[in-house]
Amino acid sequence: KLWRKDALELFLEPNFFQMGAAAVPHWLRLVDVVMSQETGAFAELLASSPGSSVAGGMFAVPSTNVFKTLITGERVAYGAWAEYLRRLGFVILSGDVDQYATSLPQILERLLEALRLPHVHPAMALVCGRAFLCMRVLLLRFSASSLGSFWPLAVFETQRILALASSPEDVDPGIPYAALRFLDMAILLQPEQFQLAQWTFVSDMTDAPDSAPSADSNASYRASPDASSRGPDRAPAAAGSSQVPQAAYTPSVDKAAVATASHEPARATKRSTSG
């Protein structure tokens, strides 16, 4: 139990995410063990957010706890939120699928608190980046059936943040960029609940009236030297077909590699790094 206390204190250090890539899979395993075996550890993590008045507990380490540094200045407050969300995402990433599903309402409350901070502050881009990073982690570590209450908030906040890009206010480009990264992952993974709202962000260009090839374009393609030189194994698509068959693509994400990208946690399968 003593080593778990030491591991937790190191996890709370401000320079924790300066670790090398080789250390990431080991820390994912250590954090998972600490959070699994310490009774109420995840609940205390949620309760120790910068917007909370709760004091004490294992996440309230005096003078070194980055979650409770809201003492002076707005910059410190925004920095505390950024560090808190990054560690929250790392903890969720280290666990099994749906390990923290029962705490999803509290997780969403913390995300909403962070995203509703004033966007005019220069440090808000960092907070938004960490909030949407945490939302990407939720896509990877929660099953589709557990994310029913997640999508209304995710879709609304993504729309709201993207709308800031066209507002007359001077908004840091990093803020809508963070939302676009989340949107990119949602489109890639295609969860069933997101498909119902996907049309509000992107359109299916294959349904456009001018997407079908004309007879002249087919004739030009068939007459081109490149097309005529193809062998039977490289025959082009049949005339009149606007689609070229493609092999199905199933994304494969390595947990440690994603967690080290830009020193931010992201997707992976927990056990894939144990070897």
Would you give an account of this structure?
Helix content is 49%, strand content 0%. It has helices at residues 2-11, 24-37, 41-47, 74-94, 104-115, 124-141, 150-164, 174-189, 192-195, 215-223, 225-228, 255-260. Helix 2 packs across helix 4 and helix 7 packs across helix 8 (174-189). Mean pLDDT is 74; it is low at 60-72, 211-253 and 260-275.
Task: Supply the key terms.
275 residues; mainly alpha; disordered C terminus
Helix content: 40-55%
Oligomeric nature of the chains: single chain
Number of helices: 12
Q: In percent terms, what proportion of residues is strand?
A: under 5%
Q: Would you report the number of β strands? A: 0
- Secondary-structure element sequence? HHHHHHHHHHHH
Low-confidence spans: pLDDT under 50, at least 5 residues? 60-72, 211-253, 260-275
- Would you tell me the structural class of the helices and strands? mainly alpha
Overall mean pLDDT stands at 74
The largest β sheet comes out as: none
Distance between the termini: 25 Å
The radius of gyration over CA amounts to 23 Å
